Amino acid sequence: MVAECLISVGTLCKLKNDSVILDEIANRHVYFVHSYRAVPSEENEEWIHPPAITGLTSISSIRRGNVHAVQFHPEKVEIFSDVGLSILRKFLLPNSSITKKSFEGKATKLAKRVIACLDVRTNDNGDLVVTKGDQYDVREQTKENEVRNLGKPVELAGQYYLDGADELLNITGFHFEVHIRECFCTIDSWRWHSRFTDANGRYYSSLEVASEYFRSGADKISIGSDAVYAAEEYLKTGVKTGKSSLEQISRVYGNQAVVVSIDPRRQYLTSPYEVGFKSVKVTNLGPNGEEYAWYQCTVNGGREGRPIGAYELAKAVEELGAGEILLNCIDCDGQGKGFDIDLIKLISDAVSIPVIASSGAGKAEHFSEVFSQTNASAALAAGIFHRKEVPIQSVKDHLLKKGIEVRM
Description:
The chain is an alpha/beta fold. Helix content is about 30%, strand content about 25%. The chain folds into two domains: about 5-90, no CATH class; about 115-400, TIM Barrel (Alpha-Beta Barrel), CATH 3.20.20.70.
């Protein structure tokens, strides 16, 4: 039997100053509708928040470190929606005097995310290192031609978590995710091997490989070349086969667990009608004065162009089950001159799922630029964070000053 009741949360928020999420709802009501409950005990007493509520024998709220959860439904019952909105606002905008001052009187939107990209690879000695490529070239231009080493991945991941990164995106194997789960932020495994056969001849499907990554601690899986091929086939036939890695993983684990990585190159045009793909009028003219460009998608690390545009690919993968798009512009990678605003605006306007802007960040102003001029939900950087040229916290402080909401 499902029990439905309204319970006053009077003493729930009259506690210590760290009761951030439940502030401002004293003597209000919340809605419980469950057929189960969690009961206080000696084993969980450190998690219970607050320690006790008069007349209630089940746990309604827990808090441990930066994890804060409630048993009741903030979103239930329209007449209590202001209570729910208050809780959700507190979740999105933690108790920061800077945050409160910056957004006083303004409607709250989803906070923009700042992501640190850990390009983790094995160097020539077999050690895992964080590297950074210039348009996919990760080797130093020296006589030794060694893999560029910008730090140890686990140490950098821990530091980025403390610095305020909202997500960590990495290219590596299972064991790295396991070591950095203490970071308590989203971990995204990017460009994983979608299927393989081990030394014993056993074949692992894309779904089995993804399952291993999730069990190892990854929160999301990013799919690159596989998604391009699946989208091309879908656009040809109009049929969802359900056999692609994108469709299988999103069906089993949910769309939110699947990110599609799009790696386009800018192709300039003298007329928007030169190709059968969506083009844009560019902000900066091409080398021969071209006013238009389309964005050709690539596979295999940018080495092979495909007959599909970034716009067409983005629309197709959203229909196939992608929950997010990681949008890289190979032309801007490693340049430090800013994101490709034309590309990011094109794609973030075309889809309803979140878009992560990637490639080109060189200073904090580039983040406010992309957030103010496009609908990107997040922005990513690598080298400037690894080399400590631009600290993550300075990016967030800058965004707050510009009136752009971020999680502190």
